[in-house]
From TrEMBL:
Residues 149-274 form the Polyvalent protein metallopeptidase domain. It comes from Mesorhizobium mediterraneum. One of its GO terms (molecular function) is single-stranded DNA binding. InterPro entries: Antirestriction_ArdC, ArdC_N, MPTase-PolyVal. Residues 5-120 form the N-terminal domain. This is Antirestriction protein.
Length: 295
């Protein structure tokens, strides 16, 4: 089994390589197939989560895969398919715990582990059942985001959002989100990417997810919180079917994120997990809102 150290390092090296090249791997170039922009899925149709989303987005972008379904070599064989000779797989991870015999009597006896394994995009596999072949899409000449979807999503969280001034931020003191006037944004894509980024910050408030990163990252907690918010926004954009283009101070953020990742090989795993938790929390508020409306 791949050691935890090797798996963490391989994932971090992949993300660092992208950042050093000036590319944020969670920013999807969503001009093209709608399928290409969605959250990656397993052969069962279940969505990947956390760091696995980033790893599969990176691979899909590097090799130009339009499909978003991935499976292991064995799964492909069980389905009657065959990975083409020479195809290179993509690393994903599985979380779990185990209990060493010498610690069976300990109260905190379970030890977490991270196991890496390889998956292939369905475009790398021949002879799969027809259900894995998506129908051809007639792409619009100018992709239009589902803007009302985002408006409803944000409204259902009950977050207080106001549009004025020139700054986008979440203000803990007043527990609200301040956005620049709508006419100040270059595009609707930029507006909604920014709004979902700030909504992700909003989710981390003490009376919500209580996302305090200072104990884990010390003076670097601000940079990591920004990374968490951007990853969460990218997950939400993918879930809602809209493009993600935050257009932040890219050079400064890339430098700070690279410093964190190079100093701590587990940082990107933690950030992705926190981002997934934020996205999950905001999705859960949608259900709560519908229940309240029905009552």
């Amino acid at each position: 089994m791949q050691s935890i150290k090797d798996t963490y390092q391989r994932i971090t090296d992949t993300i660092v390589e992208q950042l050093e090249a000036g590319t944020k791997p969670w920013i999807r170039p969503w001009r093209g197939s709608v399928r290409h922009s969605r959250i990656p899925r397993r052969a069962t149709g279940k969505a990947y989560r956390g760091i696995n989303v980033l790893m599969l987005w990176v691979s899909g972008q590097m090799f130009g895969y339009e499909e978003n379904t991935w499976m292991t070599y064995r799964q492909a064989q069980d389905l009657g398919g065959q990975v083409r000779k020479g195809e290179k797989g993509t690393l994903v991870v599985k979380y779990g715990t185990f209990t060493p015999k010498e610690r069976e009597d300990d109260e905190d006896r379970s030890i977490p582990y991270l196991k890496g394994y390889t998956v292939f995009n369905v475009e790398q596999i021949e002879n799969l059942p027809d259900r894995f072949a998506s129908p051809a899409e007639e792409l619009p000449s100018v992709p239009v985001p589902h803007l009302e979807t985002v408006e409803v999503f944000v409204r259902n969280t009950n977050a207080k959002v106001s549009y004025s001034g020139t700054k986008a931020c979440y203000r803990p003191s007043s527990d609200d989100i301040l956005m620049p006037g709508r006419d100040r944004f270059d595009s609707q894509v930029h507006l909604y990417s920014t709004l979902l980024h700030e909504l992700s910050h909003w989710s981390g408030a003490k009376h919500r997810l209580d996302r305090d990163l200072s104990g884990r990252f010390g003076t670097e907690c601000y940079a990591v919180e920004e990374l968490v918010a951007e990853l969460a926004a990218s997950f939400l954009c993918a879930d809602l079917g809209v493009a993600h283009d935050p257009r932040d101070n890219t050079a400064a953020y890339l430098a700070s994120w690279l410093a964190v990742l190079k100093n701590d090989k587990r940082a990107i795993i933690t950030a992705a997990a926190k981002a997934q938790a934020a996205a999950d929390y905001l999705h859960q508020l949608q259900s709560s809102s519908r229940v309240n409306e029905a009552a």
